[in-house]
Model the fold of this input.
Amino acid sequence: GKMEEGKAYSQDGVLGHLEMLEAQARELALKQEEMEQQEEKLAGLKARVQELRAQRDELRAKVELQQKQLLEKGVVKDPAQPSAQTVLEWKIKSIKAMLQIFYLTGISGKLTKRGVCFCISTAYEGTYLGSYYLDILTKPEVRIQRHSVPIFIPLEQIAKKYLQTDIRRFLSVLSDHLNAYAGRRYQADQFEEHFSDRIEGTLQRNSLCNLLVFNYNVSSNRKTFLFNVKLLYGDLCCSLPTEATISCTPSAPASLAEMAAAHSEVFRHTALHKAFDSLSNAKETQD
Amino acid sequence: MENSIYQVYEDEIQLLEEEIKLLSEKYEDIQQESTFFSDEEILASIKLFQREFQGQSKGHESPSDLKAQLESLEREISFLMKFTGIQFTSHSKKTLEKSGNRTVQKHRLSGNCHSLPFQLEFQLLEMQNKENVSAVITDLSIITESGEYSDLSKLVSSTEEHGSLLLFFRSLSSYAEWYEHRRCTFLHFK
Done:
């Protein structure tokens, strides 16, 4: 009857209400957990920051004390007698530092199980340009197992001539070739980087960088003419051209021939990336 | 956003870790560069070291490791100096600047190239980029016993002017060989 209906209805209501309360409680519990986790993580991060700050401050003080000692006594030595381990570790670092700069001399290397791995450094004036490696075996005979020398360098020729009889000479001659090549390439790269707006078109070069061609404008009597330059570096161990051929359009006036000769001289005696500056001087006297 | 609360701390942590790394390196560098131990002190330490750590290996490097490392390094440098004829008798460096991928050091290097002595001072700037390390020499100062040999003093002044350290070594090397050869030839005829 009606009693049963009412009873059933209110039972559902209560259950429903209970479920809702449970759900709310679960949600609250989750949010609480999240908040606790967040707080924990934050606390952890804060603690880590404090820890690192303390470490950093300690180090700063250490370095400051070191500076003070250096100023006062000129050396930093522990007041106590340094331990044997400290001394040896110092020596080890010392030799490592020496080995690290040996490449500045041009030829360095490392002993390997079956021979030596040589390293040839290249440089143009004060700028070191890159190293080339040769893995050389010494038994049963001296031979090159691996290398990073570019193929347009006559390595085989040089090896045939010197490798068996005088390995130092072999490395020396190879170094001359590599340094000259690196020097030519450096000049061409610098020229492209700083003077591309002064030339017409682009600089053309071969892989060995011993043949360079480019064009640039000159003016004479308020007219502009195009000079075509061909630089040939006939000596592979040299980073200055042996020939500088400048040609102009056939219709150009005779006075231009003089200018071309003057410019040619400049190119033969000045590094390419410095030549244009010298040219401006030559140019000013013509105009 | 939630993440931003952590971000502030995480950023500071990263900065602090970097600063700590640079400071420790600076401390170690200065410690290394302003200390000096003579060969006698080193020999004494080798003997002492073996006795001190007889049978122990607490997580320090065992005596055989350090000694072996030292011997191996000495063999390497000895081979290079003998092969190239360029003997370094003393080397000291001072790190002037160290940041990210850029290091500036001042070096003092003395030695002999075959029989010709030299003393060098220079500044070395090394920069690490993606594929390799680039190096530039500045403030090069060279002292040799050029005395009677005007060729040598010409070499010194032109290489000093352009910081051409590599060229100096290569030229000094061939010059020294020529000098040796000449000396031997004279002796032969004496």
Notes: The CA atoms of residues 114 and 177 of chain B lie 7 Å apart. Chain B has two domains: 1-32, 85-189.
